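Researcher: Here's my situation. A collaborator sent me these components and asked whether they could plausibly form a single complex. I don't have experimental data yet, so a predicted model of the whole assembly would be a useful starting point for our discussion.
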Amino acid sequence: MASADVLQGTLDLLVLKALSLEPMHGWGIGQRIQQLSADALQVGQGSIYPALYRLQKKGLVKGSWRTTANNRDAKYYTLTAAGLRVLQTELADWRRFTAAVELVIAAERQGNQ
Amino acid sequence: MRRLATAIRMWLHALTRSADADLDREIASHLAIDADALEARGIPGAEAHRQARLHFGAVEQHKEAVRDERGTAILRDTASDLCLAWRSFRRQPVFTAGVLLTLGIGIGATTAVFGWANWLLWRPVPGVSRPSELTSISFVKFEDGAMAPLGISLPDFLDVQRSAPLLARSAGYTRDEVQIGRADAPATTLQAELVAGDFFGVLGVTPALGRFFVPADLAPASDARLAVISDAIWRAHFGATPAIIGRTVQINALPFTIIGVAPRAFRGTDRTDTRDIWLPLSAFRALHHSPSGGATDPTSHIIDDVLVRRPDGLTPEAVQAAVERGATASVAGTPDSITYREYPATIDGIFGTPRRGYEDKLRIARMMLGVVAIVLLIACANTANLLLLRGIRRRGEFAVRRALGASTGRLVRQHGSEALVLAVLGAAVGVILAVALSRLFGHISMWSLPAFDRTPFDDRVVAVAALLAVVTSAIFGIFPALAALRSDPLDDLRDAGRNGTRRPGVLRGSLTVIQVAAALSLVVGALLLVRTVHQLGRVELGLDPHDVTTIPIFTSEQGYSPPRLHAMRTQMIAWMEQQPGVIAVATGASIQFGGSTFEEQLRPVGTTGKKWPVNAASYGVSPRYFAAMGIPLIAGRSFSDLEFDDTTSNVVLISRTTARALFGAANPVGRQFEIRHYHGVVATTVIGVVGDTRIYSLRDPFEPTIYRPSAGPFDFGATLVVRSTRPVKEVARQATEGLAQFDPALPIGTARALDDVVATVFASERLFARLLGILAAIAALLAGIGLYTVIACSVSERKRELGIRMALGALGGRVVSLVVRQGLLLAGAGIIAGLAGAFALSHALRGLLFGITPTDTVTYVVAAMCALVIALAACVVPARSATRINPVEALRNE
């Protein structure tokens, strides 16, 4: 599980969540996800960008060029109001889903005993 | 071309460049930040950069993914796809030519036939506003399965119009021919529509000049002599002068005042012909110089077609029901009305569809659509085959591209755009061929459909062609890409450039079989029709049409009295008999194959009862008619000049069949029989017996026929029959000269060789035979091309196998037989399927066939032999090229 690739639909959720904490550039988003998941989730660095462009096209994030602390040019992404709304519903959905899956798995164990 | 392609590429590049630059900058920044992070962990600069790149993965692939998300990729890819397609077609001229020719022929034939059928069946009537709202109603009866038009009288029509509010916007019209007089030349025949009701208003036509009729002009009692002329006549006869309004012209020798000119676009209510002049229907009797029972006489003016502009939401059936109710009520109100109460009102189908006399052509048009669909099927199968082959040959190329990271969508798109380029080029070839083919059709159908070549194309036809091209090539262009995607690129790569021993696939094989089968069915159908026409041409006519010229002269339009008509006849006979080259001259009120025949009922003297046993065609002819027509005199004599001149003479010649029906085996000469007349029974004396002749149809047995010196009430004019050694033109000139001496105003009809007149009887069969012949030849050609490409490609695919065989000692003959056997197997399967298809097709043609059964063995064998010969021809070239394979080269590589 340590280096599992992130499913595409889930990647969008994770990117939104990461950006809800603070505006970040692409590299930072990948690092943040990895760090928050205690290295359990590793996002392929290149695959962040298609996700960012997808979210940008939907109007959920927007990007602008700024300078990093290390004096590098980088495109920083910010969550939009629409992005925040979507994130909240997606999170609720995700929780319902995982809870449901958990219930099913738990029930199976009881049945086997 | 190349410069244009480059320009387009540059433009698209500029369009997408700024977005790409931004992405490049972002990725560079990403890599730099990553490298910084790595360096911070103590990894040296160069190594840090290398690892950052590794982390990121395939830069181009990620960029491509971003572009896909962004959507601009499609534009740029399309441009490069089109360039790629163009380049690959130029590299494979044979493939490209094959596809373009096949698509072109398929689309060309379909478009030409569709254009013809559209012209005949569906094209909106020009110059009429919103024709889909119009419903045309006529009164017909069905007799022996044939439709006979009846009509409704003008007073009854007006009752019908008043009977329901939904019929408020309705009109009636009848088609007719009239003659317009000219100052110093014979009158000219014009095609007229005699109109009632709000004719132009219902059609939504407004005058280009002057005015149209007002209701008072068209009332039954009106004796308004007013005329509206077409734009064409206004230009041709009156020099397009605006001063035409108010001018008086002679129409059927009566003065009419021109009140308006129709707009150029409007040419009458029938989509296939042109009308020149519109007159009030109330003038019908006057125009025909026949006495009228007055405005209330229901027989005075008969309307052939009632035209209704439907109010919103009403169906044609509702209109039909309303017309029928109104007509029934009107007839009930006038007991002596002879309106045809027992016959229902009938919807005439789409407004503007030609009806009378066109039924067989409409049927042929529909059948041709079916036939051309088969040709299109063959062309599609052929195109599919070629594209599939190409797809299979390019598996290696696609495997490489997939391995290098091209996405699924990208590959399908490239295939799709190649198909699109093919489709566009194919459609262009198709339109060119369609123009050529419809010219050819125009020539073929000369007398059957004189106006065909006028407007064979409209937007709809071009749209259909384009649609066909795109659909066909899109389906079969993308199919191989999808097939390639399902396979493992590694296998394909291993195979690439080293074609194995693969046999033609099942799909390709069955496509070829379908082509051969469809083509064979068409060839059988065409052969059956060609033999039908041949048989019809050999039917015994009972008369000799060679060297006979027929010239109709219409006198009733000029108001000729019976004595004046007779004077014209005798003078013309006398004049023509003095002309050089003339062998015999006669006149007939109507003649064999002339179109109209009059029937009379006969019975032997002494028979009583209601039933008259013999129905005979009746001809009023001059004494030397039998010599002129080449009808043999079997017994007795022909009329004398005296009997011809005497209107009271009661003598008759009868055909052999009539004699047998009336008198059995006894000698009829000198005996009498009775003819039923409107006003009683007339006894008449037989003075001679002549041979049987065909009257019109070549398919029916001989019918009873009688000949009398005068046609009595049917004497509307005379057709001049001249047997002469001179050509038709010369005879026509002689007759024109003679007629001008008798009456300079009397127009002469079109002179035609009797041979040609007889030929028009089976013109429909001949037309269909020729059209089907052309399409069958096209189908055979396409099937031949299809078979050739399949075999040729299979030979090149099997190069390695054949090379091994030759290296192991197989001789040329063995290789040839291998290739030919493969071709013949496909052809054989196609022939068997095709014979079954032909069986079905020929049964559909049954009604048209004559003198040959739909299952004629000889025809089927000949067609199958043709297919076999074509198949062999298609195999010869690939087989020869197979024997020239150099085993060493084939084995080393290709």
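Model: Some features of this prediction you could bring to your collaborator: Confidence is low (pLDDT under 50) at residues 335-344, 446-455, 496-503 of chain B. Residues 563 and 647 of chain B are 9 Å apart (CA to CA).
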